[in-house]
Design a protein that fits this description.
Strand content: under 5%
Structural class: mainly alpha
Oligomer: single chain
Number of strands: 0
Number of helices: 14
Helix content: over 70%
Radius of gyration: 28 Å
Order of helices and strands: HHHHHHHHHHHHHH
């Protein structure tokens, strides 16, 4: 598809030349017509470029919207079947102490709650990717107001139709995870009920543990873990993110993440303080969250207080990360973002030391975004 429409701007410009040259207008009028024709051709070429980027974001590579959605569907199915592990535990087929039963159930439920939180987070990420792809399509709007290209209206209309079809496809596919989230919540709620029902039946049949006491303890745990596990998952993700930024020397990414992480920590601690449930379980969760939140601050301070100028930190980040350019841009059809990467990778310490914070931030984020885009596109080239 790209090879068929990639040169439409040049084609339209060349086709428009004879009409311009044969016109019986004055030289100034002919020059004006030529400028408008070439301007229109350039607009068509740029539209095609943005269209190609949006199409790649939708279809190409393991980081594409379609691939991410397919992986999400697969993992959502795995999450639903994962409940059978919890069901098997409460069937009490193993003759083990109650503390072991509690530990096994805790592990299984933690996996389910954490996986559900990740599915929700990934669904939002797919939506964000779709928003960015549609933004590219907004830039790809095919010009219909160039009189000198009027003879090629059918071609331009075809390009516009193709863009509209791609926009709809992006929206439809990216929406799939979000439409399924309520179903997953329903499965989760019903699975809690199934756990209690099967546990009651097993306790009555085997009398392995005290009936009322065990049911009350497990119900209290289920109520608590529905709040606790998502909190721990969010704070863990925040700590992992900050750790990655500081290891990669992405100081401006770390700046932004710090405020978000602190809010995540505060919200998580407040949520845990209002939860009632097994004391040992809640205390362990609170301790874990405190450790993670302290680690976030430590990671950030280690980089921010290193004593290096921010220009040097940005240079070191780009200089280290640019080693990956050859891998993602070495194919026969390198991604569009490789041109941007080449420009940014060419900046030296002298260039960066002349820049203020907003410009250094632009360099760091620009390089990161371009590298991410190249990796997504490069996976499928």
């Amino acid at each position: 598809m790209r090879s068929k429409i990639g040169s439409w701007g040049l084609v339209l410009a060349m086709l428009a030349i004879p009409a311009i040259a044969q016109a019986s207008d004055t030289l100034r009028e002919r020059e004006s017509r030529a400028i408008r024709a070439y301007t229109g051709a350039d607009r068509v070429a740029r539209s095609d470029g943005y269209y190609a980027q949006a199409r790649d974001a939708f279809l190409t590579g393991t980081g594409s919207i379609s691939a991410l959605t397919s992986a999400w569907n697969k993992d959502a199915l795995a999450w639903m079947t994962g409940w059978f592990k919890a069901f098997a535990i409460v069937d009490l087929n193993e003759n083990i102490p109650y503390t072991d039963l509690e530990s096994n159930l805790n592990l299984a439920m933690s996996e389910q709650e954490t996986s559900l939180w990740k599915l929700k987070d990934r669904a939002r990420a797919i939506q964000d990717a779709a928003t960015e792809a549609r933004r590219l399509l907004d830039l790809a709007t095919v010009p219909q107001d160039i009189a000198e290209l009027a003879a090629y209206t059918d071609v331009l209309t075809g390009l516009a139709k193709r863009e509209a079809e791609l926009r709809q496809a992006i929206t439809d596919v990216a929406q799939i995870p979000m439409t399924k989230l309520p179903q997953l919540e329903d499965v989760r709620s019903k699975s809690h009920g199934i756990i209690m029902g099967r546990l009651r039946a097993a306790l009555i049949a085997q009398a392995r543990y005290p009936l009322d006491e065990t049911l009350a303890a497990v119900q209290a745990y289920l109520d608590a873990e529905a709040v606790v596990e998502p909190v721990v998952a969010r704070v863990t993700a925040a700590e992992n993110e900050m750790n990655a930024y500081t290891l990669n020397l992405q100081i401006y990414h770390a700046d932004d993440a710090l405020a978000t992480s602190r809010a995540t920590c505060n919200d998580g601690k407040n949520a845990l303080s209002s939860v009632h449930g097994p004391a040992a379980y809640l205390n362990a969760a609170k301790q874990r969250v405190n450790q993670l939140c302290s680690a976030i601050e430590d990671h950030y301070n280690a980089l921010a207080s290193a004593g290096l100028p921010r220009s040097d930190i940005v240079f070191q980040y780009v200089n280290t990360a640019k080693a990956g350019i050859r891998t993602v841009c070495g194919g026969a059809t390198p991604p569009v973002s490789c041109e941007r990467l080449a420009v940014l990778a060419g900046l030296g310490t002298g260039d960066l030391r002349q820049m203020d914070d907003p410009h250094l931030r632009f360099i760091e984020f620009g390089f990161s975004q371009a590298m991410d885009a190249a990796k997504r596109r490069g996976d499928g080239s």
